[in-house]
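Colleagues,

For the teaching module next term, I've prepared a clean inverse folding example: a structure given as tokens, and then the sequence designed for it. I'd like students to try predicting residues themselves before seeing the answer, so please don't circulate the second half yet.
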């Protein structure tokens, strides 16, 4: 998988050659073309990295704003060299990280400095770190998320490039680190691109930068980089899966233990460093929203020990039902953006997560749709502990360039990174491959391949997507051909907001082409917290509450409705929501305002969930 086209690489190479010739450092090609990323080893995803000993690189980093991508040049204009001149030096160097201001990591740059609020483009981060690398150890740089494209250098050596703003990844720094002081330089470019995932336009803010934790991880030469363990769907009395040991000789001994359950399995790696695991596991307390039991899991291979906390449960469909541990379940949920409560910017700490999931619990919910991209790993860890089921999504949002193979490769990479990170979370039951995509042949072919890919990567979970519906407020059809490729069908509809009145929903007839479980993945309307009026006055809390009441009535008439994730838990920043005095740059469909004020509709949904009044388990 390569992110940049060979042609772009060639253009960049030519541009560099051309630049060498200019004594003044001006380069026409550099100025016009974002420089293509050079080839470096691919990044990886170290599974359960948050359970390992890490050296946090969170904190203050120096930064340089680089809208013209000047620092990507070479020689004296290349910022990656991190050159600081000794006092008295007369050398011409036109940047200095040490003299540049600092910004916090993790954190989008936009909400940290007023002057950066609307900045989209190139941005350099730099800091130093003291290390004492040991023989027999490997070092990885872990990036929780970097929106949208990134390059990393350690001690001037390019380590990795990455595209995709919401997935975690790791790049190996073993050969670049040295004893003593090390320079870490990271370039992040938040420019929206047409062939990106997502593409140019979204209904959310393009928060740029190192938005989640950054750390250094040290592991033995041969170590567990990946594993997958799940309860066998057929019998619910065995745990099966595999462990992968990176850098292992064939025949390396691997063991898996669940000490609390007195379970043990072992085996030896094959030529690919992999060992299949299967252990009888009767008498486990199965994970569910009512009993979110997590077991301590200890994995050992060669000199490496990795521990994790995992729940065991099965998820499957049977006709139009969703079965958790073999029993029909109804999913009382809500959609959530990774927008930080109270302070804006991206969710990236325990407090943000506790606030958002606390509101879900208060609603009486047992389910969340983490829209529209993978969220911070803290979310899925917390969901595991709290017993909240999760729909996780990649930002294949609206009309990405479905006819381009490299766009498919980008979406596939994001799916891979998302799945590999969160396969150890019992809470995650649904992988969503897309949201509201146009019904055409190239879209259907692209997303059918995505569904197949997800089933291969994770046969133990279900595939969904949020589909558009067809028809008018009198008759609505759920018959998008993509439904064939999905296990569970999500559908978005906005009767009472984008079409018709809230009352029109009372008479809407639903025609559904599939005998599969349905989740209404979005419905809702906007309200400004504290704005009151009559039920038919748009933007008032009363209008939104009334809309919810009529929606709940309508949706309950759909017999195969197995869940709901109304849009949306909290107001979120969006550059396409500009109505002064009401929106002011925020999508106001939240049940809670961005300042934590609950709107009247919160109570309507809460009542429905507490009285089991939305959707049916069977
Ligand atoms: C949608 C999108 C969501 C928007 C929402 C809205 O259909 O999936 O991203 O924010 O509608 O508020 O219009």
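(Answer key — instructors only)
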């Amino acid at each position: 998988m390569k992110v940049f086209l060979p042609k772009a690489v060639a253009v960049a190479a030519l541009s560099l050659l051309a630049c060498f010739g200019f004594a003044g450092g001006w380069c026409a090609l550099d100025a016009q073309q974002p420089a293509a990323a050079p080839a470096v080893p691919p990044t990886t995803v170290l599974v359960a990295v948050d359970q390992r000993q890490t050296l946090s690189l969170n904190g203050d980093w120096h930064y340089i704003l680089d809208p013209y991508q000047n620092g990507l040049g070479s020689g004296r204009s290349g910022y990656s060299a991190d050159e600081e001149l000794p006092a008295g030096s007369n050398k011409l160097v036109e940047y200095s990280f040490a003299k540049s201001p600092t910004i916090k990591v993790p954190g989008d740059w936009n909400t940290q400095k007023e002057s950066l609020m609307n900045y989209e483009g190139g941005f350099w981060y730099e800091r130093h770190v003291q290390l004492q690398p040991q023989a027999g150890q490997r070092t990885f740089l872990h990036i929780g998320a970097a929106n949208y494209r990134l390059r990393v250098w350690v001690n001037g050596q390019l380590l990795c490039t990455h595209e995709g703003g919401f997935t975690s990844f790791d790049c190996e720094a073993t050969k670049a680190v040295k004893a003593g002081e090390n320079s870490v330089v990271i370039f992040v470019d938040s420019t929206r691109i047409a062939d990106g995932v997502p593409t140019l336009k979204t209904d959310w803010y393009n928060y740029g930068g190192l938005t989640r934790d950054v750390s250094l991880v040290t592991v033995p030469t041969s170590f567990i980089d990946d594993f997958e363990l799940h309860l066998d769907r057929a019998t619910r009395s065995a745990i099966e899966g595999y462990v992968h040991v990176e850098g292992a000789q064939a025949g390396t001994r691997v063991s898996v233990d669940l000490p609390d359950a007195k379970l043990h399995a072992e085996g030896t790696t094959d030529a690919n460093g992999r060992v299949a695991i299967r252990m009888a596991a009767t008498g486990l307390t199965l994970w569910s929203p009512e009993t979110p039991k997590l077991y301590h899991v200890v994995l050992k291979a060669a000199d490496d020990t990795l521990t994790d906390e995992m729940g065991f449960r099965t998820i499957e469909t049977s006709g139009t039902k969703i079965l958790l541990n073999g029993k029909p379940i109804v999913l009382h949920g809500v959609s959530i953006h990774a927008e930080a409560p109270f302070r804006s910017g991206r969710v990236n700490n325990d407090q943000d997560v506790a606030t958002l999931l606390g509101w879900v619990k208060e609603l009486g919910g047992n389910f969340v749709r983490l829209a529209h991209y993978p969220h911070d790993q803290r979310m899925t860890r917390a969901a595991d502990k709290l017993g909240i089921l999760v729909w996780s999504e990649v930002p294949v949002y609206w009309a990405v360039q479905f006819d381009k193979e490299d766009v498919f490769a980008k979406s596939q990479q994001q799916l891979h990174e998302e799945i590999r990170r969160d396969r150890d979370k019992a809470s995650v039951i649904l992988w969503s491959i897309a949201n509201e995509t146009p019904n055409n042949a190239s879209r259907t072919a692209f997303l059918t391949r995505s569904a197949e890919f997800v089933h291969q990567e994770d046969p133990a979970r279900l595939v969904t997507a949020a589909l558009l519906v067809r028809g008018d407020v009198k008759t609505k059809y759920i018959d998008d051909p993509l439904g064939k490729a999905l296990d569970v069908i999500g559908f978005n509809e906005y009767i009472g907001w984008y079409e018709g009145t809230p009352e029109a929903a009372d008479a809407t007839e639903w025609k559904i082409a599939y005998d599969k479980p349905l989740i209404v993945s979005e419905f809702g309307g906007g309200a400004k917290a504290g704005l009151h009026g009559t039920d038919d006055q748009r933007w008032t809390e009363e209008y939104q509450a009334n809309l919810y009441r009529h929606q709940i009535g309508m949706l309950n008439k759909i017999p195969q409705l197995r869940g709901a994730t109304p849009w949306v838990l909290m107001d979120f920043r969006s550059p396409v929501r500009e109505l002064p005095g009401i929106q002011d740059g925020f999508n106001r469909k939240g049940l809670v305002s961005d300042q934590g004020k609950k709107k009247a509709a919160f109570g309507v949904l809460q009542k429905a969930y507490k009285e089991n009044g939305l959707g049916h388990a069977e």
